[in-house]
Design the sequence.
């Protein structure tokens, strides 16, 4: 089985694509570095193929960067610190706001508040 086939199997993609929920569930289900690496490489291949079909990544981002952020987003979805570390080591994933570590819930709220204040002040 290729890495792309493995990725599609994990997200339940039967030729019609997958949802972000299926992606998150798959990332949270993976518990070992070997399968994490296969998933990451397959996801990158999927992203490259999607780009070739006209689906563009955000401006200035490669499919690899998008996948790392998508996996990193899952860090804040209840992932254990050990699993966060595994994904960081496997592919360099990072949460869009928290980076490669998980802050405490109180620190996360404060970080969100600070970002919200910056956005608010930039609109004034």
Sequence:
């Amino acid at each position: 089985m290729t890495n792309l086939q493995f990725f599609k199997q994990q997200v339940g993609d039967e030729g019609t694509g997958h949802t972000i929920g299926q992606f998150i569930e798959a990332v949270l289900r993976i518990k070992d570095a070997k399968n994490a690496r296969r998933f990451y490489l397959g996801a990158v291949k999927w992203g490259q193929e999607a780009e070739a079909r006209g689906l563009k990544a955000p401006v200035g981002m490669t499919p690899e960067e998008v996948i790392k952020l998508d996996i990193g987003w899952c860090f804040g979805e209840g992932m254990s610190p050990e699993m966060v570390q595994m994904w960081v080591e496997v592919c360099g994933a990072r949460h869009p706001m928290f980076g490669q570590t998980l802050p405490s819930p109180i620190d996360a709220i404060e970080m969100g508040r600070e970002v919200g204040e910056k956005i608010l002040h930039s609109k004034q």
